[in-house]
Amino acid sequence: LRSCSPGRARLTNASRHAYLVARFGDIYAQERLDAETLLRTYISDMEMVRRIIYIAAVESFHAAKMAYRHFKMRVRKTLSLGHSGPESLEDTVLDYIVRHEDLYDVQASVNEVIRSMNINPKISFPPEIDFIVISSLIRELCCVAFSMQTLIPPLDIAFGTDGELFHETKYRRSFDSDFTAPLVAYHVWPALIENDVVIVKGEAVTKR
């Protein structure tokens, strides 16, 4: 194994946190809109396009978190054989992962996301097209989600369901929402949370 510098993960936590939160915002502002434009060439229903992108985000975080758990277990098993300190084994494992995030098999996660989307009953796609057309968005989300697991504490996205009560602290309404409606009709983008507290609002559509 390549050597690790002591405490790297903790020393860089604040700067990595700031970068990843900003990157999540950039994906919302740029890659999400690029994917939306691309999907509109195949699908005329704007609600379906938004649902596809939202589910891609949710599935990307799920796949990346699972990949991180497996990656961390493999690293811990390997490093535990020769670990002697002065850092705790957990800190040594985290330092190694932060230094070698390039070893994350992001393509495997992208494939897993697309498989999950293909069997999701809430979204559909013309049979001649595949969700692989938005794989660049999925890849970016997986990379960010994986890196967010290395933070102390890790970042995640908030769980959202159709029909949930709209919360101003959790979402902002899309421009085409009914601004008097109390319930979320569907989600456009997930909220980002840290220790169950929203740090970046998501976006949702409210309708009566």
Automatic annotation (TrEMBL):
Q: Which InterPro entries match?
A: MIEAP (IPR026169), MIEAP_C (IPR031981)
Its GO biological process annotations read: mitochondrial protein catabolic process; mitophagy by internal vacuole formation
Where does this one sit in the cell?
Cytoplasm; Mitochondrion matrix; Mitochondrion outer membrane
GO molecular function terms listed in the Swiss-Prot or TrEMBL record: lipid binding
Keywords (A to Z) from UniProt:
Coiled coil, Cytoplasm, Lipid-binding, Membrane, Mitochondrion, Mitochondrion outer membrane
Note the Pfam families from the entry.
MIEAP (PF16026)
**One Gene Ontology cellular component annotation held by this UniProt entry:** mitochondrial matrix
The chain positions of domain Mitochondria-eating protein C-terminal read 16-206
* PANTHER family xref list: MITOCHONDRIA-EATING PROTEIN, MITOCHONDRIA-EATING PROTEIN-RELATED
Q: Which family does it belong to?
A: Belongs to the MIEAP family.
Protein's name according to its UniProt entry: Mitochondria-eating protein
Q: Which organism is it from?
A: Casuarius casuarius
